[in-house]
Amino acid sequence: MRFFDRALVNGRSIRVRSTEKIDGDFALGGADHELEDRRRSVIDRPWVWLTQVHGNGCVDVDVVGLENARGAPADSSVTTRSDLALSIQTADCVPIALWSLDGVIAAVHAGWRGLEAGVIETATRSMRTHSSAPLHAFVGPSIGPECYEFGAEDLDRLEARFGPVIGGTTSDGRPALNVRAGVISELLRNDVVIDVDDDVCTACAGGFFSHRDRADIARHATVIWIEES
Ligand SMILES: [Zn+2]
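^ thats the input. predicted complex w/ zinc ion below
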């Protein structure tokens, strides 16, 4: 499991955890009690998870409430509440945890479709309805360009939008997507400070689930919450 802690103002702090294969499967649709046990072993409080659709939808838990937020069809969630944890599931897509030093947090799921749909802009805009403080990011493990062959037509369009940084080459010399570089670029464009860029590759590093490389249906969880003390 990847760990990241950071102090906020007023004695509070944020905690980010990004699970690995050894921590188990956090995909939706399995045995609910086992999944809930697995979640509670990471952090024992109510989790918000999402039915991810590779779009730009953002759920503000402060607005809709915990029960409506849970399982909502969206790819990011935002809250100022310190009594719950925000999570997303990934296996190759880019997991992002965001926070402001005065205690707004978000969890974002960003594959190339969500990136293109504007999921990062939507999430940061939602956070800024709660705070004008600078936003910070933890960017978790995702697939690297050396393992992510990508169609030339889609790549041309994404390079036109996000710059040449989103293009790359696979280890055997084919056109590739560097989705992580695209995410970093988009975070910076939205004035987010990158505190952690954990650029281990989920496909070839070992110890991770990979949808693209091994057709894994299991998923990692990335979760962020606020500790009061
Ligand atoms: Zn790789």
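The mean pLDDT is 96.
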